Amino acid sequence: MQTAAQSTYSFNGSYTIAAFMAKVIMNDGAGGELMQEFISKHITGHFPKMKAEISLDALDDSAVVDDVVFTIDGHTVNPLFFPGGDIGKIAVSGTVNDISVMGAQPIGLACSTVIEEGLDVDIVDKVFDSMGQTAADCGVPIVTGDTKVMGAGELDKMIVSTAAIGRRTADLDHDMEVANSYRKVANRWCADSNVAPGDRIIVSGYVGDHGVALLSSREGYGFESVVKSDVQPLNKMIAQGLRVGGITAMKDPTRGGLANTLNEWANKSKVELQIDQEQIPLRDGVINACDLLGIDPLSIGNEGKTVIAVVPAMADAVLKALKATPEGKDAAIIGVAAAGRNRVILNTEVGGRRILEPPSGDPVPRIC
Predict the structure, then answer these.
(1) Sheet with 158-167: strands ordered across
(2) From the DSSP assignment, how many helices (H) and strands (E) are in the chain?
(3) Measured between alpha carbons, how far is 32 from 256 in angstroms, rounded to an integer?
(4) Which domain holds residue 111?
(5) How far apart are CA 142 and CA 132, in angstroms?
(6) pTM score, two decimals?
(7) 205 shares a domain with 153
(8) What pLDDT does residue 18 have?
(9) The domain spanning residue 176 has which CATH number?
(10) Does 117 share its domain with 200?
(11) Residue 266 has pLDDT above 80, yes or no
(12) How far is CA 328 from CA 36, 134, 201, 305, 363, in A?
């Protein structure tokens, strides 16, 4: 719940009335249920409704307007540099991935940066060099941008916002043709609402790496020596899966982690997701760190993974295609969608079953 700040008003010096006003808290922007509630109550409701194939109200990773795929993302990371990446690499990778998981091809990026006065210029150079290198690696150019400087103390070093556009490709047309040959797919993009009973659920690799690496680097726990961030663009890996065909939905499990992504799918697609805990790729270093800190690794944000739903007949072929790429070599089938209540059931390693609840927010703040 949101916290409240108290103000006291005096009338003729005889008595006071305490008024409570809600304040924004960190979890309002940290993924999970609190952020979803905050967005629906205080942001999207103020905007005029616009007819679109995938609209703002859908809260997918990107919108689709007249066959143009569009997304924007703001990045505030502490620290700016961490094992495996930096704020610049996150900015490019995360925005490219938001376009790619819709099944689209990202074709151009925009970058808006706000820099705190007094920041070392060599840090600025390193961040933008990383952005340029990541954009070159994934083949998506940065084509426009804006830069502002704010006074010292008004900002925490640097905020980078990136936007991107994408387009539909023959690969997505082929993918949907294959999927529709087995069952009717609700949306012709890889939307959150497309998951149906029988679909197999794939995760493209180890989860939890990014959150643990960044938290350890920030707090000096020492886990960064064995765990590095997974931050990377996934457009080339995703294209290989689409060329096989049968993918119905994709999403990158950023803030709120795998648990939040799966619960979004269950609610939007109205299915029960049955997940096998022992099939979820988790590094020992991530498990040990989370045990020590009392954090659920399935609720920690990732920056270089995607969750994919596939019609059952094509699941093994898609998995093989992913595993043939550097980004997807550790991919695994972790569960199946079924008819039932809109929830996520975790089949535990000891043979039990429990409901995997969506987190209220990411347990590691300011990681993307």
Answers:
(1) 63-65, 68-75, 158-167, 105-116, 142-150
(2) 9, 16
(3) 5
(4) 58-167
(5) 8
(6) 0.90
(7) no
(8) 44
(9) 3.90.650.10
(10) no
(11) yes
(12) 29, 18, 14, 8, 26
